Amino acid sequence: MVTMQDVARRAGVSAMTVSNVVNERHYVREETRRKVSAAIEELGYTVNTTARNLRQGRTGVIGLALSEIDRPYFGRLSALVVRRARQHGYEVVIEITGDRREGEMAAIQHSRLRSYDGLLLYASQLKADDSSLLRADYPIVLFGERTYTTPVDHVVVANAEGGALAARHLLERGCSRLAMVGGRWSDGDDADVATARTQGFADALRDAGQVLDPEAVRDTPYTLPASRDAVGSLLAVMPDVDGIFCATDWVALGVMRGLADHGLRIPEDVKVIGFDDVEEAAFARPSLSSIAPDLVGMVDAALGLLVERVAGSRGADDYREVVGGVQLRARESTADERGPAIRAPEAGGDPHAGRR
Amino acid sequence: MVTMQDVARRAGVSAMTVSNVVNERHYVREETRRKVSAAIEELGYTVNTTARNLRQGRTGVIGLALSEIDRPYFGRLSALVVRRARQHGYEVVIEITGDRREGEMAAIQHSRLRSYDGLLLYASQLKADDSSLLRADYPIVLFGERTYTTPVDHVVVANAEGGALAARHLLERGCSRLAMVGGRWSDGDDADVATARTQGFADALRDAGQVLDPEAVRDTPYTLPASRDAVGSLLAVMPDVDGIFCATDWVALGVMRGLADHGLRIPEDVKVIGFDDVEEAAFARPSLSSIAPDLVGMVDAALGLLVERVAGSRGADDYREVVGGVQLRARESTADERGPAIRAPEAGGDPHAGRR
DNA sequence: ATGAAAGCGCTAACAC
DNA sequence: GTGTTAGCGCTTTCAT
Predict the structure, then answer these.
(1) Averaged over B329-340, what is the pLDDT?
(2) Which residues of A touch B71 (CB under 8 A)?
(3) Neighbour-count burial of A3, counting CB atoms closer than 10 A to its CB (0-12 exposed, 13-18 middle, 19+ buried)
């Protein structure tokens, strides 16, 4: 292994000068710079990041903890985080929590153990009781969940607003027997992704004079098989359903398959709308209407908050909440029989991020 | 920040003893161990991985370089790699190459710069000419590409065999006007994923007395829009196509959408088969027949090779090639009109990995 | 079974 | 502008 010392000897300077060249500090004489650069080239020197990090008291790595990586939404999220983090000078290590509370808590522990500089945590299962963990003297930004009781930086989709958009869209397209798959009724102060979307959906229906039958909200895991099978149990309690809001597009893909298995046509018999606007949605048959969150804006905000927190440039009591905007993308799966089907897909728009 | 020294003072021992406890070395007296553990607990000590790594000359991180993360196949691959690597005691940092040769070369450079302990590289664009890079005195395992000219550890899907399986399946199901989307004719010794699958497909057709029209092989990017649009150009040269082999399932999803846009029914008018067996495939409508590689076996093999290489437990001239097995998964998209449609989906089997 | 000394490769702080 | 000194937190080596 070639060290700075080796380069310094070769170039006839001190290690410090090599360091100055490597780090592009400006006050190095041009001639010296060239000598050192030549020596680096000849010896094939690369800096030892570990040593640099030890000296600087950082690791240059942030953790990204999420439920699963092999689902379109998380794939897209990861891609955005990795790219953006690198722009901030950080590498990203991915941690899989399996969507379990223990997994999410373990990620926090593990993250500190591994000495990441900070953690971006997609937490769906952490409850207010777990706040002590989040309070940790450790830079954490929560993503995708809203926590009311704990002071913690977090970025959240406008879940309730999205649910309301979906409700109004289905009503407008003539649906009257509405259901939700992947929904859950809130049972306290906390609102996770599922309950927030359900609440927004139910509230908007109520405002329109409709009541959402509790039986019509199927609380199923966000997997393709479970979502497909949810159709059967939904039809058992509501055989004449004509509009389904799915908590995520992934759920919707399973539901569409389930409806087909029951011989139901989309959108003629049942209209379907999802949430997340993953790329698959626009190419499914029929193309899937969806609520599109401003993922790019949210990732930017989250990393901004995390980097600030790591740098300590924000006070210990100064916590922020960023709410990502949502937009309706109407496609074939909610097309009105009276109008022409909308052809898929269009380019993504540029939703706005609200900041409080 | 709490250091070993702090713990040592608190427990009334030396730092070395704390180190011995932390690393679970066996020759520590039980009483001492308890004292130290208590001090660690009280002070909330965690080891500084950076310092440990500096001392041990490793980073504990391996790089995973792949084209894109936000595609089902790569999502699944990443999930497997992350889980398996952790079992070997490594974290994984993901690098996106964008499926460009420069991206792949940059990943190697970057990886050395960042001092990862090793690199798992999904390379599709590296040519034999770039062999010097791979020869680097740096542990690299190639994944998904076959390289003939360079001595390098690599793990590869049985691409040609998979292509042949697809060909024979389509023929067996009565197709006679065959095409391929996402295929590419080889132009040299090297065979990347696309050319290997194309070759296997074409060879199997030839063996069955069919000739694959060069015009019927559409070399399009592996994206949903490009794959959908490829259907139009394919129909222009081959209006009566009745069987399409898609280089990946992702391509197939786009092709299925494109066929629908042209009013063609699957499988009645055109049968479609993909490659990779991603979860979406089994839930598409119709469910997509696919060639399923033994991903689990391949990831195990790749990490095994990489860990050996990092540990230096294999000679500098001892390079291995591992070939991952493939299996046919027949589903609705290639169903025979004469027989009943096969209902999706079944659990994944346990393909065999061949080792040469 | 435990401790003391040394040093991994780098850079902050200061001296020249 | 460039060099010297010191030390980040840990573990290897060797002594006790």
Answers:
(1) 83
(2) 75
(3) middle
Quick one: pLDDT at residue B353?
A: 34
Chain B residue with minimal CA distance to A112? B46
For B272, the token pair is: 């479609």
**Domains of chain A, first to last:** 56-157+295-325 (3.40.50.2300), 159-275 (3.40.50.2300)
pLDDT in tens, A117-154: 899 988 777 665 666 666 667 888 989 776 656 778 89
Does the beta carbon of A114 lie under 8 angstroms from any beta carbon of chain B?
yes
- How large is the average pLDDT for residues A237-250? 97
DSSP letter for each residue of A15-55: HHHHHHHHTT-TTS-HHHHHHHHHHHHHHT----HHHHHHH
Nearest to A199 by CA among A175, A225, A163, A228: A163
Are A123 and A63 a contacting pair, CB within 8 Å?
A: no
Expressed in angstroms, the distance from the first to the final Cα of chain A is 51
- Dist. CA A205–CA A224, nearest whole Å: 27
pLDDT tens track for A153-186:
899 999 999 999 999 999 999 999 999 999 999 8
Decide if B241 contacts B270 (C-beta within 8 A).
yes
Contacting residues of A for B91, CB less than 8 Å apart: 61, 93, 114
Rounded Cα gap, residues A170 and A217, in angstroms: 16
Other C-beta atoms closer than 10 Å to the C-beta of B223 total 16
The pLDDT score that the predictor gives to residue B237 is 96
Nearest to A143 by CA among A51, A60, A78, A231: A78
- Find out whether A273 and A333 touch, Cβ atoms under 8 Å: yes
Residues B206, B93: Cα–Cα separation, whole Å: 43
Between positions 59 and 98 of A, the ones with CB within 8 A of B are: 59, 61, 68-72, 74-76, 78-79, 82-83, 91-94, 96
Rank A77-86, A253-262, B127-136 by mean pLDDT and report only the highest: A253-262
* In contact, B159 and B196? CB cutoff 8 Å: yes
Query: Percent helix, strand, coil in chain A (nearest 5)?
Result: 45, 15, 40
Task: Give me the pLDDT at residue A106, please.
Answer: 74
